Amino acid sequence: MAERLVIDPITRIEGHLRIELETEGGKITKAWSETTQYRGLEEIVQGRDPRDVWAFVQRICGVCTSVHAIASIVAVENAIGSNPPEQARLIRDMVLGSQEVQDHVIHFYHLHALDFVNVASAAEGDPQAAVDFAKAIGSTWKGNTLERMTEVRDTVQGILDSGQLSIFTGGYWGHPDYRLPPEANLMAVAHYLDALEFQRSMIRIGTVFGGKNPHPNFLVGGMACSIDPNHTESINQVQVDQIGVWIAESLEFVKTCYVPDALAIAGVYKDYFDIGAAQNNYLAVGMSGATFAGDPADSDFTSAHTEVKAGVIFDGDLNNIQPFDPNKIEEWVHSAWYSYEGGDIGLKPSEGETTVAYTGPKPPYSWLADSDEYTWCKAPRYDGRAVQVGPLARVILAYARGHARTVEIVDDAAKQLGITLDQLNSTGGRILARAVECLTSAEILAEATFPTFVSNLKGGDIDVFDTTRWEPSSWPSKASGMSFVEVARGNLSHWVTIEGGKVARYQAVVPTTWLAGGRDADGQQGPYEESLAGNGEHPLVDPAQPLEPLRTIHSFDPCMSCAVHVLDPAGDELKAVES
Amino acid sequence: MTYKLEGWREPTLGENLARAGVSRRDFLAYCGVLAGIFAVGAGARPARAEEVAEALAAITKPNVVWLQLQECTGCMESTLRSGGTTVEEVVLNLLSVNYNELVMAAAGDAANQALADTNAEDHILVVNGSIPLKDGGIYCTIGGESAEEVLRKSAEKATAILAVGACAVWGSVQASKPNPTGAVGVDEIIRDKPVINVAGCPPIGEVITATVSYLLTHDAPPKTDAEGRPLFAYEQRIHDSCPRRAHYDAGQYVRSFDDEGARAGWCLYEVGCKGPSTFSPCPIFQWNLHTSWPIGAGHPCIGCTEKDFFDRFTPFYHVLPDVKGLGVESTAEKIGWGLVGATVAGVGVHAGLTALRRSAGRKLKLTEPLAAFGDESPAADAVGTPPSPTSPPEQAGGEGE
Q1: Which domain CATH number covers B362?
Q2: Which of A92, A255, B236, B259 is deepest in the core (most CB within 10 A)?
Q3: B61 at the A interface (CB within 8 A)?
Q4: What is the tens place of the pLDDT at every residue in B83-116?
Q5: pLDDT value at position B368?
Q6: Do B178 and B300 belong to one domain?
Q7: Neighbouring-strand partners of residue A485
Q8: How far apart are CA B201 and CA B303, in angstroms?
Q9: B224 touching A, CB under 8 A?
């Protein structure tokens, strides 16, 4: 007899996600992914100055801060024909690159690790054994000292002794499937704390160029930060030197701490390479940070990593990469609380519409999934198919395209873990892919993007702003533009139409929308749902402690505020229809 | 336990319990239950009720509920970036943050239990995010409950309430026209207790954690301005402490981004800087370990610590007095002296309202918000005849209750 289970809130994510499940005999049989927040941002930006819109849509998300701002600016530039100087593009690349490295590190340690690391057990860990464990897994992180491990153990012990568990209150510390020995848990908690320190420091790359983080400032046509090396109030050698240090520190942390930890945890929980498979389809327009103004097929690459071209892979067939075609993207609202004028169909983002049609129960409620509609998240499909985006999709595409460094890291890891390439479509595979990508991103930042920026500076290239398209009088009376950016959680696109100097239509197709959306009219599940209930084999030992589905959902790095975005192209007021 | 604590008045939980008349026997029974709960972790030797009682009685850390309602998580991210009192210090040493969705280990029922348990006792409430009131609260639910309901339950026994970030303070981006979800700030819902408004989108991390540590250090909320913002952070306009102010006074303006003036660090007023009407410590504390700040990185201030950000400050790149409704194209030169005068007078009003709030000791209906450039009246008149806001926030008096 199937049992029902609700997990709401899903914590350690961005925003509000609810998962409803049916389980039988310790396995998940059905799953519904339910986004429970809606803000209506794209409606809010209509009629506004397109040069202001980046600041509105940047607030779609404060975790992936910067990425929506950059996607918006590139889409507007694409529409109005603005051509930002190369140095401005490189600055954006550095901001995107540093944001992504920081984001992956935060995700692994602060949002995901507690599904695998037992904090209560860390108090039992012997500090010297923790140092030895770190060495054994190849971690050469400078924080692996007896003094540090002792200090962290005492801190954890102090919290447990106090009876006030703070953020560890109610954790599933008695769950039988926490498998790491105490010393490994202690090492991981120490690295959890070190990672907090690390992210505070390295995120400053965005602060130098954007003035603050989260939510740095950007500018249509380039960047607002001047980079004249012979002015005091400009970004000059002082900041360039600092950035060089921060990038080197980033690479060091990723190499010596994050990657070994991720491999170690993936190794201990190796069965998770056979758990959590979603649709074996992948979409990416390049490696992380790849940015296009307009269709990638005929747009300038604006980022430094040109090795991997856009592509789509169906059914895991790495030998048959499909060309990426933006016209094959459609969004469905079959399971979402919106209605389309044309009924239960898919609409292209450039023609997208959103009329709120809430059919759910009035809160408080206890169950949503008896209805066909159960979420605020639309369901994007590519060529009619649910696809995965994100680090896994990018790593698989890069591998299929023969990107040498990706192939090298993936092959090494697969050999060390004893897994096949097919097993990457899994909870463990997403953890591994994120770590692989974090390393290549940190390397590209250190070895390509930043050195190119510095070399251009040396050559006297200090322009960061295209003045020619700043004034609205220089714009066409009607123009449309789009952008594609590979951001931490996957493929992001913004679509804008400008009429008479104002935003007439705005749409964003966001990584988490691709992944967290519900069923479409064909009954095809979204990737979250498929990963939990695709084969009826996903474990869930104790419904009161739903650790296993948390592991899988967290492997996607959900960002729910990003996922929900709407536009009413007609400019009509949104109508809420209550049941 | 069914005992109701009367607030955290004694140094430790044990003393507070004694004061509330809780018997040792009842307390031990409660601790026995807790001992059972703690025993599930780590395979450790089960603690005895007496041991738990001893630890619990000595508790000195305030419990905290840290809600995230309709928002983007940027405020928590900013908290993570604080280099003053760090987030690890806050969650591990200063406070027991028993509920925060971004960082807590538990999910689902276990998280909701942690919330209910903490709500049942005295606690500090921190809120990120706005509350969408339209259509019965369907636009943001947590655990099946509307954001409003979640907030009300957590506010009931809160001893201090912090609204952190532009969304929690005034609704911010989702409350911008046409505010499709009916988003409002915390003090539109919670009217029987003072709400400390830590403004900004997001606020500077150090300001967030310092507001918390101010509470703990002073055992009282920080003094605030008329908008409920702590004076230690929001006492001055950006314009008053801006390192580029000398260029403003000298008439040296950036005319176009990346021009010679921009490279020399001149004043951004003419490209739309909202510093003259924005109360924020950005130039003083700066951002991310004192690395830089928006104007320092060449972009105009966009006014994110002020009421009705975004609507009142867009278009961002228009010169301030031209922001909305004035119908005058003014250059900095033409109105320069007027601005300087109004700025000084504005500070006077600011201080006056603060004093009023301090001395009132009763509910104070604010019909005169702090005038800012960009309001729908000429800047020169802003001090004398402030415009009435569409819905005047009702603010409780801070001290002297």
Answers
A1: 4.10.480.10
A2: A92
A3: yes
A4: 888 888 888 888 999 999 999 999 999 999 999 9
A5: 38
A6: no
A7: A291, A492
A8: 9
A9: no
Structural domain ending residue among the three candidates B22, B43, B60? B60
Q: How far is CA A57 from CA A68, A167, A434, in A?
A: 6, 30, 25
Which helix (H) or strand (E) is B124 found in, with range?
Answer: strand B123-128
Locate tokens 């012990």: which residue? A157
At residue B20, the pLDDT reads 57
- When pLDDT is cut at 50, 70 and 90, the band that residue A191 belongs to is very high
The answer on B319 and B376 residing in a single domain is yes
Q: How many whole angstroms from its chain centre is CA A299?
A: 24
Q: Rounded to whole angstroms, how far apart are CA atoms B350 and B344?
A: 10
The verdict on residue B313 lying in a domain is yes
Domain span at A315: 39-340+342-524+555-563
pLDDT of residue B91: 83
For residue B3, what are the domain limits? 1-60
Average pLDDT score over residue span A504-532:
95
- Window 356-395 of B: residues touching A by CB (8 A cutoff) are none
Instruction: Please state, in angstroms and rounded to a whole number, the distance separating the CA atoms of residues B126 and A560.
Output: 21
pLDDT value, residue B340: 31
Q: Are B58 and B120 within 8 A, CB to CB?
A: no
Token pair recorded at residue A333: 């609202």
Q: With cut-offs at 50, 70 and 90, classify the pLDDT of residue B358.
A: very low
Q: Are residues B202 and B275 in the same domain?
A: no
Cα separation, A352 vs A568, whole angstroms: 7
Q: Do B314 and B198 share a structural domain?
A: no
- Predicted local confidence at residue A196, as pLDDT: 95
Instruction: Give the distance from residue A178's alpha carbon to the nearest chain B alpha carbon, in angstroms.
Output: 10
B366 and B248 in a single domain? The answer is yes
Instruction: From chain A, pick out residues whose CB is under 8 angstroms from the CB of B91.
Output: 166-167
- Summarize pLDDT for A358-389 with one digit per residue, the tens: 999 999 999 999 999 999 999 999 999 999 99
- Mean pLDDT for chain B overall: 77
Tokens of A319: 């030998």
